[in-house]
Amino acid sequence: MNNSLNQPKKRRIGLMGGTFDPIHHGHLVAAEEARYQFGMEKVIFIPAGKPPHKTRRDISLPGHRLEMTKRAISSNPHFTISDLEIKREGLSYTIDTVRAMKEVYVGWEIYFITGSDAVLEILTWKNVEGLLEECFFVAATRPGFQLGSVNHLPKGAMAKIKTIEVPALAISSTDIRHRVREGRPIKYLLPEAVEKFIFRKKLYQQ
Predict the structure, then answer these.
(1) How far apart are CA 80 and CA 72, in angstroms?
(2) CATH code for position 166
(3) Would you say residue 199 lies in a domain?
(4) pTM to 2 decimals?
(5) How far apart are CA 136 and CA 7, in angstroms?
(6) Over the stretch 93-117, which tens digit does the pLDDT of each residue have?
(7) Does some domain include residue 182?
(8) Is 23 exposed, middle or buried (CB count within 10 Å of its CB: 0-12, 13-18, 19+)?
(9) Is 83 within a domain?
(10) Of 134, 141, 143, 82, nearest to 110 (Cα)?
(11) Mean of the per-residue pLDDT values for the chain?
(12) Rounded (10°) angle between helices 62-73 and 25-37
């Protein structure tokens, strides 16, 4: 008799990491689609404290990015937020975050949700082999985009990388920042509460 058939299904949780400068509808749609497709009980948004792969020096204050994210997810009961990386000293490494979450959600399957561009750079991440042992990855792609295989990953690692198509990924934080600087509209690209916060705090202006 196969005892594995009698074992309860593992509970699943999603971690949505990112700079969120600013958070927009692409992030939110990706998180909700991943939650639905992979049966996650909830998705935790984790704004990066000091992201090691971001080279621009004008990243918004952590408190502002945290507040924008709180406002963006407030209407979804399956979404929550963590200031784990913002409070942590030093650079924000994904493997440290995943391991910290595994200490809280013991026995759960963890899915780290990110964009396909980040997954294609995964070989530059800290301890990528250990990271792929700790969690699954969900790579959000634009419709028609083929992720393919990531070269030189450990054997069997591609099985830990799942993909979902998200039409709203045509929206980008970079474009939103440029639009604000140029005085162009950003309405409908991101939640209204986030838009109001950006203009009240005068973010991304010259």
Answers:
(1) 10
(2) 3.40.50.620
(3) no
(4) 0.90
(5) 20
(6) 899 999 999 999 999 999 999 887 7
(7) no
(8) buried
(9) yes
(10) 134
(11) 88
(12) 60
- Helices (H) and strands (E) counted in the chain, each on its own, are 8, 6
Which tokens sit at 181?
Answer: 């600087």
Indicate the number of domains in the chain: 1
Partnered with residue 44 across adjacent β-strands are 15, 80
Residue 36 lies in a domain: yes
Pair of tokens at residue 90: 């030093």
- Token readout for 100 is 């910290």
Place of tokens 């963006």: 72
Strongest mean pLDDT among 48-57, 126-135, 195-204 = 195-204
Tokens of 63: 């408190």
47: preceding bond cis by omega (within 30 degrees): no
Question: Could you give the CA distance from residue 167 to residue 26 in angstroms, rounded to a whole number?
Answer: 8
pLDDT of residue 55: 58
CB contact set of 37 (below 8 Å; sequence gap of 6+): 164
26-39: pLDDT as tens digits: 999 999 999 999 99
